Amino acid sequence: xxxxxxxxxxxxxxxxxxxxxxxxxxxxxxxxxxxxxxxxxxxxxxxxxxxxxxxxxxxxxxxxxxxxxxxxxxxxxxxxxxxxxxxxxxxxxxxxxxxxxxxxxxxxxxxxxxxxxxxxxxxxxxxxxxxxxxxxxxxxxxxxxxxxxxxxxxxxxxxxxxxxxxxxxxxxxxxxxxxxxxxxxxxxxxxxxxxxxxxxxxxxxxxxxxxxxxxxxxxxxxxxxxxxxxxxxxxxxxxxxxxxxxxxxxxxxxxxxxxxxxxxxxxxxxxxxxxxxxxxxxxxxxxxxxxxxxxxxxxxxxxxxxxxxxxxxxxxxxxxxxxxxxxxxxxxxxxxxxxxxxxxxxxxxxxxxxxxxxxxxxxxxxxxxxxxxxxxxxxxxxxxxx
Amino acid sequence: xxxxxxxxxxxxxxxxxxxxxxxxxxxxxxxxxxxxxxxxxxxxxxxxxxxxxxxxxxxxxxxxxxxxxxxxxxxxxxxxxxxxxxxxxxxxxxxxxxxxxxxxxxxxxxxxxxxxxxxxxxxxxxxxxxxxxxxxxxxxxxxxxxxxxxxxxxxxxxxxxxxxxxxxxxxxxxxxxxxxxxxxxxxxxxxxxxxxxxxxxxxxxxxxxxxxxxxxxxxxxxxxxxxxxxxxxxxxxxxxxxxxxxxxxxxxxxxxxxxxxxxxxxxxxxxxxxxxxxxxxxxxxxxxxxxxxxxxxxxxxxxxxxxxxxxxxxxxxxxxxxxxxxxxxxxxxxxxxxxxxxxxxxxxxxxxxxxxxxxxxxxxxxxxxxxxxxxxxxxxxxxxxxxxxxxxxxxxxx
Lengths: 386, 398
Prior knowledge:
- Chain A has 386 residues and is an alpha/beta fold.
- Chain A has 15 helices and 12 strands.
- Helix content of chain A is 47%, strand content 14%.
- Chain A is elongated and about 85 Å long.
- Chain B folds into 2 domains: 19-287, Alpha-Beta Barrel (TIM Barrel), CATH 3.20.20.70; 304-397, no CATH class.
- Chains A and B meet through helix 5, helix 8, helix 9, helix 10 and strand 11 of A and helix 4, helix 6, helix 9, helix 10 and helix 11 of B.
């Protein structure tokens, strides 16, 4: 029988996103981003890492004090803070007044032996200490397993069971190095979901370009929460992009997560400005080039029916469709463009002759043509004909 | 748009599926020069095309898809020029499934052709305005013509991911019976997920015995994962592009695919990956599309350590946070001091400049540097870190 799960989205642009090399958000920018996320209907965010120091604490407090409401379900935005598994970190989170804290510690042997130079028992002890501290402050908490994808399953499950006993609301599975492939992710998450009763959250990195696919694999295997970020901003290659997860859930699986996707481009532009990381024009879902069609075959297909080459319409993510005229254009794209944009009806013969000039000019300029250049070529051609 | 499948948590994949191994050999057919150049706004100069072809051959790509001879003019010249180089790779030209197009390819002297035609009803009806039989006839005509001239032939099933699976079988059989050497499975609009990819490719292979090539698009960010799922299902060729260059959100990226196969699946293709960054930079410049600092495998920031969590591991042992060494793809490792930095990074950075701060100094210095980084809204330059340390020491002496 088909069961349609509710998938919770948690945005970590303000925490893992800010951890990207060279990215720093000001307090004001953090407030703006949190506001935008609440406005498009994201129910939960990770606002920062309070243990970093007084400036970061001020940022997280500011987000908490903004008292944001999630659009569409008028519940308060759930503000999480990140903490390593230590009393001090959890206390710093509590001092910011957050609703919940994400307590994180590495559980793989490679990290335990080579990073901490400790034992598995030490890891479990730290987790327990941090959880007690969270409870002392009345905080809801998620127990996160860093480097879970390189952790032997029996110990990972032992850690998650401890989380269960300690009263965690959720556990997090981190592919910290982004090394999983979807079938492996599915297999491991399925097993974990069989062994524990807590909800599982996916936190997947993009080192080999498979973050989104791995998140979806986790969801298909029974995970019920996703930590994603706008544009995939995050450490190294980043996280699974929130916009990819939302659109893939909707168009590939028919599950609407209730997000106002028509503002994706706007939110992504704001984050791009604040992080000083421009959105590549070819970025999936939100890149300006995603709905730009140049090749004759594609443009012709789009003109006949957009569904020929588009999985969803540009307005749905706040973008526009463009027909670009360049080396790969065909006569039909010229006819269409002249008719719709310039009000000039080209006959086939003129279009074909114009196309030759367009192609050689585009190769010479090594780029597509601006509208003015296109008109100039057209005028040269038609004047010459007279 | 049609939904691929109602979302269903009761899906159970067999242990066999989930443990599907990739069986080498796996071949790369790189299409940077064809699908890559077809990207809106991208035009390669002929010299650039030739240089990219040389680099692809140098790193060990098995087949290079060089362009579309039917476009004529400069495009044909570039292709002929590449053929004349006699590179150690097969040279493939792209064609519509039309005899006239294939003639243009023959004229260029390539050893292989792709013969492409839509396989989905939506394309057949709305784009081509024809019927299924016309498709099968076109395949037969074009492939038989190409085979009569001893060309290696790949039949491209455009929009295969939206095709009726039964018709796709007919399509593949028509290709095989006409003498085609392989079938290219195109997820033209990039709408598959790895599970669908696996199941569909597996089903096709079970029906038709013909080598399969994966051609995946990145519209939902899953091009690489889908290509790998296809290989797990038994495909043996992958169509890639450098930097994932390609229509809309692009194709499966060459460097992601090769490294994912090597490090996630343990399959080595014999590609010289240490030239990846150099190749990526060249294609980035020629296509006018800079490599984002965070691009998987070749981004400049991948081996830069700034946050304490990661850096504290990496200074002790890089394997804590590195699956492969930076040299394997031609990148450097660096340490940067910023808002998320702690004692490990700062100490490492100061040591690079011959300073050995004490524990006590570090405790005081780290908050100063973090505050400065926050005030500047960026990571600190090395010079700023060293100067902050020196002035801090001076104050202490006074």
